[in-house]
Amino acid sequence: MLIRFDAVSLSFGEHKILNAADFGLEPGERVCLIGRNGAGKSSTLKLITGELEPDDGKIERDPALSFGILDQKLADESAQSVRDFVSAGMAQQLERIVRYKELADTAHADRSRLRELEALEREIIAAGGWSVETQVESILTQLALPAAKRMDELSGGWRRRVALARALVGNPDVVLLDEPTNHLDIGTIEWLEARALAYPGAILFVTHDRRFVERVATRIVDIDRGRIRSWPGSYSNYMSLKSKANLEEDTHNRAFDKKLAAEEIWVRRGVKARTHRNEGRVRALEELRGERSQRVARPRTARIHINESEEISGRKVIELRKVTHGFGGKPLLKDFSLRVMRGDRIGIIGNNGVGKSTLLRILLGEITPEHGSVKIGTNLETGYFDQLRRELDPTKTVADTIGEGREYISLNGRKKHVMAYLTDFLFTVKRARMPVAALSGGERNRLILAKLLTRSANLLVLDEPTNDLDVETLEALEDRLTEYNGTLIAVSHDRHFLDAVVTSVLAFEADGTVKRHAGGYSDWARRHRDLAVGEEEPTRGSEARAQGGTGQPGDRHAVGARRPAAAQSQRGASALPPEAAAKKPAATRKLSFKLQRELNELPATIDRLESAIAALQAEISAPDFFAQTHEIVRPRLAALADAEDQLEAAMTRWLELEDRG
């Protein structure tokens, strides 16, 4: 075993990150570390490298173990060249080579050092060999990196690629990747997937990219309420097993709470509890109370609301005619025409630097193109994700950022308290009162999202909204976006997200053109695979006729007027790779309309029951609850038992319908 945690605990102030956690990493494993924002994923990586020391417990690692590390934070802008920055990843290999040469000069006089020399030679060969420059050149070529450019001349996406090259160039024993797909384009993500699958060492990574996890991970490790638990197999398998484990935990807790409530009633009757033969039962009750006090409630799930505009936009939202635009003599768009109609759901994909964000700003009227025309439709109320990122004030508190001095905000005609709204986005009251500057990257993105969705909008424009969001928040966002009735335009490298929320993609193709394709990312990728093996791509007209449309750029039928592919699937199955997803029938094809409606309504029923149970448990846990009369106590206990039974039945039914779908 390369690394082993034995009952490791770590806290930051009152916040407990790990609590007597056990963990191990074997050679050749590809392990994904999963947990909510703030659960301790990045801290666990730092414990592994020794950057952090545990408060308690033991961490065992081989002192000779080499690490390749990709931090979540972007590489600094500096005057250092790309080649020099990547070469720094070979520092350990250079040290081995220098040491080998020193040993070789003295080994003939001291035969006892020959074994050390042989061991060092094996390490050098395992890490890539003697030619350091060749290794550096190889990875620069694979990632198409501009070796002579300075780091401060590169965009965020390119600096991410350079940092990835530095982490991998030395072929370390253990590669630690913290959100490796952030800021990477789809082509680079797929390159990284292939590299990871063939990598001989161990890889431990943190990512929100479910498609990446599904393809790469051999095991999922979940940080949940300070504990580390291992789940073998793929991400979809993890989702299934985790759901069942949560159900079992809830069932156990309900049975435990019933027993505790019954014992509390018994002990408050007084006389029998004081007899000698019942002292053991009193001690058992004390143990039950102690066990209950140690229970850590499962964190609530994100509840995302979209403040849809009461105004309906004009049928034609945006129209571009023969637009040409570029920067510094480099053309990004040439004679490009596009018609965005009300209700369209468009994803924009392409490599870093091709002009995706520029196209967004042209669509919104923020940039005037060099040639061509842009017509903006009527009655548009636009919510732009990237604009809010630029406007975020680090000195304001989280609550002030959302409420702008008000205690209540308006959502779809109803008032909601700012603190309650932030709780839905997983901010505690304490975090809500902190300044924005104190938030992590994931929390800032959640705050921007929360701010955006308070604004009344019939056009949502999202530029890389998924970066740094945890998986649960991502899934909640996808669920709400699939129900959104307005027009949606999203730039994203998250393939699962695109499959879940869009019905057509604008792709910056390899030949420099921008083309619109029906379906989500997987449909586009499958079409390109077909073309690669010699199949002819259908013309826009024939493709539109197959959908029942006219073939015009703005025709809803021409761009695939259907529910997003991944939105039709449920948790777990939705994380399948494109090939498997294409073969898996949609849930709506298996379930009748009545059963599908029942399945869609069950999550809301479960949320309502969980809220009712939490309220009843809080009431029953009050110190003076059992001091009340029997007429008051008994109905409340009966109501709790009834709600728990209803919840168990609803969860069982939900799993049954999920399996059938």
What does this molecule look like?
By secondary structure, the chain is of the alpha/beta class. Helix content is 45%, strand content 19%. The protein contains 25 helices and 20 strands. A 6-stranded mixed β-sheet has the order 5-6-7-3-8-9, with helices on both faces. A hairpin with a 2-residue loop joins strand 15 and strand 16. Helix 9 (235-268) packs antiparallel against helix 25 (630-660) and helix 24 (593-620) packs antiparallel against helix 25 (630-660). The longest helix has 34 residues, at 235-268. The two termini are 40 Å apart. Mean pLDDT is 81; it is low at 535-589.
Question: What's this entry about, in short?
Answer:
The chain is an alpha/beta fold.
From the N-terminal CA to the C-terminal CA, the straight-line distance is 40 Å
Average pLDDT over all residues: 81
Give unreliable regions as ranges: 535-589
Structural class label: alpha/beta
Percent range of helical residues: 40-55%
Shape: globular
* Biggest sheet overview: 6 strands, mixed
Radius of gyration: 28 Å
Our estimate of the beta-strand percent is: 15-25%
User: What spatial order of strands do you see in the largest sheet?
Assistant: 5-6-7-3-8-9
Tell me the total number of β-strands. 20
Supply the number of helical segments.
25
